[in-house]
Amino acid sequence: MAASQAIQAAHDSLRPALLFLASGDLTSASVNRSPTAYLNNPEEERSMYDTDVDTDMTLVRVADAASGAGRGALGWFAVHCTSLNNTNRLVSGDNKAAAQLAIEWWAAEAELRALNLLAEMANGTTAAADAAAGGDMPNAAEVSMIAAAAASSAALGLEELKMTEGANEPYKTMFHLHTTRERKRMVLASEPGFHGGDPAQQAAPEGQAGSQFLRFEPGFVAAMAQASVGDTSPNTQGAFCLDTGLPCDRASSTCNGRNELCHGRGPAWPDDRTSAAIIGLQQFLGALRLYDTAGTQPPLSGRLDFRSVYLDMTNISVSASEWTRPGRTCPPAMGMSFAAGTTDGPGAFDFTQGDTRGPPLWRIVRNLVLPPSREQQACQAPKPILLDTGQITVPYLWQPRITQISLLRLGRLVIACVPGEFSTMAGRRLKRALKARFTMAANTGNSVPNDSDDPVIVLSGLTGTYSSYITTWEEYQVQRYEGASTLYGPHTLDAYIQVGLQYCSSGKRARNKTFSVTAYVASQWVGLWAAPHQPVAVPRDRQKP
């Protein structure tokens, strides 16, 4: 009922809006929980990146087309919602809820303070020069930071976190913006900080003067979606043994051979709720910088398009290409290391991560209960199968055979919606492949996308059907938790890349349309309708070459 009411309310609130795009790197909110698997990727590929975890943060700022007031913000950043580990027994949105509430409370408080300052200016108690950024009065958006800290705290039942100068080290944010050709002269300093960009300049339609303050509508909605979340962890201190306090075994994530004793530590360990609030605030602070910066860029414009396809993942033949290796996918199955859990939530019994054989006792149990066929074992190798879920249909299919992927395009922004948790390198590989295909199409005069030679590719994970994890072929060979949970075998990622490239190239002329700088946006749900418009030049993507 609540979902249907929200959709109806969103539909009723549709009106023109402007969309702005910005992106950067947030390096203080996540670590890779399966580094040995990541290291199995080719060295030349790893050398393309500075970190073994996806630090990309991208944000779309939504503003009212008439007033320029903020209506919403949609961001993507990869970090597991496992700040509260599997000992937690309460319903919680974890660090993502803390981030989203922080943005919304910040916006609400900023608007309230802006209204108060404008009222004071109107009655003469505050001078306009003092109320402006750099004046004697603090900018409304900057002052409202305390509301964001209160929101993250309240979301997790905590007392208010301090957002003051000289705060504890866990609160330190490491963030820098991705720049464009047009904006290199406007690059912001990359030192840690709570705010960046030009917070006093309000985005407004062309020809209208910007407001002195950032302004927001009452129904402002924020979302911080997942990206390549598969091997990311919010437990930034690393994994340690409960009995000795020493680091866990790196390869197996065990302590004296036991997975139950290996636990990740968040920035405020042993207080998991405070850790969740801190990781949420890290995302909020990055989103704040991007929200400010997006307002300095031209609105998104150009082509509006989408592709969506349902796939039978049980037997897709993958051809060799620049981006894929030959092979085929398999019916779903879970490996032995799946039962070992992760450092964010350890498993039980004598299962360990990185095991390509499996405990002898459990192999016997599996063969007595539901033995996988030789063909299935060969297809899934080197995964030692624990649960051949593709065979289990009672009382329903245990895991999906059919999945869905979609490609959504808003001008230079391409959103790849994928039905699972891509590892860092799996997501990078898919984004590189899509970026190369779209860029090639633009450079050769193809109709997709001929309005931008530098598309921004965002991977939106956990969309549509949930199909567990997706790793690279190389990571799959290691068989840590994520590889053991890659349902359709070692060629799962290759199948998604192959299909994604096929569908971003098909049917373009029949379905491509353009949209103007005015899109129709609901305050609680976003919808875009196509309208004729001549595409404009927009900044270059921020991804590494």
Largest sheet: 6 strands, mixed
Question: Which regions are unreliable across 5 or more consecutive residues at pLDDT < 50?
Answer: 133-137, 163-171, 180-211, 447-451, 507-545
- Tell me roughly what share of residues is in helical segments: 25-40%
Continuous helix count: 15
Mean pLDDT reading = 81
Assign an overall shape. globular
**Rg, Å, rounded:** 24 Å
Class from helix and strand fractions? alpha+beta
Please count the beta strands (DSSP E, at least 2 residues each): 23
Amino-to-carboxy terminus distance: 46 Å
Strand content: 15-25%
EC number: 3.5.1.23
Pfam family, one: Ceramidase_alk
Family: Belongs to the neutral ceramidase family.
Enzyme class: hydrolase
Please explain how this structure is put together.
The two termini are 46 Å apart. Helix 4 packs antiparallel against helix 7, helix 7 runs antiparallel to helix 8 (272-294) and helix 11 (424-443) runs parallel beside helix 14 (492-503). Strands 1, 3, 4, 5, 6 and 23 form a 6-stranded mixed β-sheet that branches. The chain has helices spanning 2-12, 35-38, 43-46, 94-123, 128-131, 140-143, 145-155, 272-294, 360-369, 374-380, 424-443, 473-478, 481-484, 492-503, 508-511; strands at residues 15-26, 31-32, 56-64, 70-77, 175-177, 216-225, 232-233, 238-241, 262-265, 302-312, 317-318, 327-328, 334-335, 341-342, 345-346, 385-387, 402-410, 413-417, 421-422, 456-460, 469-470, 513-515, 519-521. With 545 residues, the protein is of the alpha+beta class. It is built from 15 helices and 23 strands. Belongs to the neutral ceramidase family. It catalyses: an N-acylsphing-4-enine + H2O = sphing-4-enine + a fatty acid. Its EC number is 3.5.1.23.
